[in-house]
Specification:
The protein is an alpha+beta fold. Helices cover about 35% and strands about 25% of the residues. It has one domain: 2-Layer Sandwich (Ribosomal Protein S5, domain 2), CATH 3.30.230.
Length: about 130
């Protein structure tokens, strides 16, 4: 199997994933998964698609992560891994879609509007 590429996005985070056959190593920006994401919850989020299909120790994953916060990065990485797994084996798509790993979360920060302090907040109104 050659190298499979995929991209995942969430909020401002972008994850580029390169999947090769191996023994389950996940390297993010030249650091291991447990160094980059010390929180076990975020590690669980990243590994969800692999654990759903039971292939956690079958592939080596190299990741370039950029932008956003740690939660957005973890969810972007989850989407990228799911997309790469579908490229490897298209029959897995229905199982991953059922768990919600194939859907790009469209929610993002609303832009700030001119003449007000934030996106929806208004300056205090004074009648007199």
């Amino acid at each position: 199997m050659e190298q499979i590429n995929a991209v995942g996005r969430r909020k401002a985070a972008i994850a580029r994933v390169f999947v090769t056959e191996g023994n389950g190593d996940i390297t993010i920006n030249k650091r291991s998964l447990d160094v980059y994401f010390p929180s076990p919850i975020l590690q669980f989020i990243v590994k969800q698609p692999l654990n759903t299909l039971g292939v956690a120790d079958k592939y080596d994953i190299k990741v370039n992560l950029d932008g956003g916060g740690y939660k957005g990065q973890a969810e972007a990485l989850r989407l990228a891994i799911a997309r790469a797994l579908v490229k490897i084996n298209p029959e897995d798509k229905s199982a991953l879609r059922k768990e919600g790993f194939m859907t790009r979360d469209p929610r993002a920060v609303e832009r700030k509007k001119p003449g007000q302090p934030k996106a929806r907040k208004r300056f205090q109104f004074s009648k007199r």
